[in-house]
Amino acid sequence: MQTSDPSHTQHPGHNQQLSNNQDPATEVAFSSAASAESDESLNIETLNDLASLADYSLLNTLDADPDAKTDGANHSPRQVLSGHYVLVTPMQIENPEYVTHSKTFFRELGFADNLAQSADFKRLFSGDLSNLPHPMRKIGWSTGYALSIYGNEYTQQCPFKTGNGYGDGRAASVLEAVIKGQRWEMQLKGSGRTPYSRGADGRAVLRSSVREFLAQEHMHALGVPTSRSLSLYASKTETVKRPWYSEGSRQKDPDIMVSDAVAISTRVAPSFIRVGQLELFGRRARGNEHPKAMAELEKIVLHLIEREYAYVIDQQLTRDDKVVLLARAFRSRLTSLIANWIRVGYCQGNFNSDNCAAGGFTLDYGPYGFCELFDPRFQPWTGGGEHYSFLNQPVAAEKNFGSFCTALKPLLASNPEALQQLNDIDDGFALEMQTEMEKMWAAKLGLSTFDPVLFRELFTLMIQTSVDYTIFFRELSEIPDNIDPLKRSFYSNSNSNSKELDERWSAWLTKWKTLINGDSSSQSNEELSRQMKRVNPKYILREWFVVPAYKNAAVGNYDLIRELQDIMTQPYAEQPEEVEEKFNKLKPSQFFNAGGTSHYSCSS
Ligand SMILES: Nc1ncnc2c1ncn2[C@@H]1O[C@H](COP(=O)(O)OP(=O)(O)OP(=O)(O)O)[C@@H](O)[C@H]1O
Ligand SMILES: [Mg+2]
C-alpha cells in the first residue's frame, strides 16, 4: 500500500569525532569496513549465541506508548498520542519456509550459514518470538512517524486525520544487538498488524519481499549505503490479495486482483529512524500537543545521534551544538547518498520523508527501479510523478532535508545563533548537492574535475540516442578507440539521422579522450579504466531479471533468487561468459511499457 498522495505522488567506519567547527563532509558513508576489522573469530551458530549479544540498552532510553497493552497485543488501529514506540507482538506467517539469506551479511556478522535454516532462527525471523532465550525480548516494537510529501506536511493519510495513526503498519523490530562492536537493530517487514496499519493487513507479499531483499543486497554491493538484507521466509499456505497486472498488460494501473503468498523479510540497520519520525515529534513539540512533547523530541534527536552519529559528534558538546552538527552530518550523508543513487541508476520512486532514513542510507525498496534507457524523468512508480523521478532526486532530497531541519527547530527556539546556523545549513543543501553531483559525474567519466560543457553535450547525446545508462558507462570505462563499442548501449540504432549522431558521438569521444589524457598524464589508460570500472557497474538489477525470480518463487523454486544474489553482489566484477550473455543486456523490446515490469502502481 503506497501513501495515496493526491499530487501523486554510525556506522562502522565512523570513528572520528567532530567538534563543533569540523566539517563532517569527509566522513565515509557506512560500509562493512568496521566489521571486517573487528572480531573475525565470532561464530554464531545457535540462537543462544545470538541471544548473548542482545542489548536493548538504547531502546530502553526511549519512551514506550503508555496506552499500549503491555503484552504486545496491539494490533488494532488507534491513535498513538505519545511515546516513541509501541510494543507489538509480531504475527507469525503460517507454515514458513526458508527462501534465502544474505551470505555476505551473515559472514560480516559472524553468523554460520546453516543458522538461517535452523528451526529457532526461522521461527524468530518468520515472526514467532514466543520461545526466545533470555535476554531476548518476546515482544517487538513499531514506531509512529509523520509524512511529508516533497516537503509538504500531510495528515490525511492517517485514518484519524491527525497523523497519530501513521507509522510502521507492517514492520516490527525484534532485536537490538551489539555484534563485533556495532549496534544493529533487526526489523521484520510483513509481520502483521500494528496500531498504524490503517485497516490494512500488515502483510508483505513474496513478490515485494523478493524485490526488496535482492535490491538491498545489491545496493550494498554497489557501495551505496543501505539497510541490509538478513533473511527471507515465505508462507506455504497463507496468502493475501493485491491488485496486479494480468499477463501482457500494458495498462498503467493493475487490472486484476492476485493472491500472493505472504513473506517476512528481515532488514538490519543501526536504526530505522526516518525523517518522518523526527517530524512527528517536531510537529508535536511545535504545537505543544502534550506536556512531554518537547522532551520526547529531544530524546529522539539525541537517540538518533547516539545510534547513527556517535562516531562523528562529540558527546561533550552542548545539546544545541549537537543538533547543529547533526544537521550538517546528515546533509553530508544525504547528498552523498543521492549522488550514489544516481551514479548507479537507482530511482527510489517514493521518496517521502517517511521513506528517508535519518542515518542517511537507503530505506524502503517499494516501487524502486534501476534506470535502463536513459531518461532524466525515469520513474517506475506510476504514483511517483516527476517530483520523485530519477534526476529530480536531488531536489526531492532537499525537500526531505528541509522537513528534517523543520523538525529540529523547536529545540533551538531560544538559541537564535544555533537557529541561524541550522537555517544556513538548510540553505546550503543545494550547493552541496550540486558539488556531490559534479564529483560523481566526473568520476563516472574518469575525470578529476567536472567539465560542464562536455557533460552537457553527453547528456544531450545520451537522450537523443536512447542509451542504456549502465551499459553506456561501462563500455566507456573500456576507453574505446572509436564509438563502435559504445553502440552496444544504443536502443535506437536505426535512427534516421544516425549518421549525424554518429559524427557527434565521435567528436564527443575525441574531446573526452583529450581530456582524460590531459588529466591523467601519470596514469595509464589501463589504470584509468580499472578506476572507472569501480565507479560504473557492469551488472544492475533490472526488473525483468527480478520478475521471473519472484514468479518461480511463487511456485516454490528459489534458484533464480539465489542466482541473482550471486551475480548482483559482484556488480563491478567481470563474470563468466554465460553470466555476461544473460545479464549484460539491453532491455528487450517486449518489456517496454509492460505493466509490472516497466512500471507498477502498487508494490506491497
Ligand atoms: N499491507 C500493509 N498493511 C499495513 N500497513 C501497510 C501495508 N503496506 C504499507 N503499509 C504502511 O503504509 C505506509 C506507506 O507504505 P510504504 O510503501 O511507504 O512503506 P512500506 O514499504 O510498507 O514500509 P517501509 O517504509 O517500512 O519499508 C507505511 O507506513 C507502511 O507501514
Ligand atoms: Mg515506506
Automatic annotation (TrEMBL):
Disordered: annotated span: 1-41
Enzyme kind, highest EC tier: transferase
Necessary cofactors: Mg(2+); Mn(2+)
Keywords of this entry: ATP-binding, Magnesium, Manganese, Metal-binding, Nucleotide-binding, Nucleotidyltransferase, Transferase
Nucleotide-binding listed as a keyword: yes
Ranges of Polar residues composition bias in the record: 1-24
Comp. bias intervals (Low complexity): 25-36
Active-site residues, Swiss-Prot/TrEMBL: D354
Membership in a protein family: Belongs to the SELO family.
Name of the protein: Protein nucleotidyltransferase YdiU
Organism annotation: Cocleimonas flava
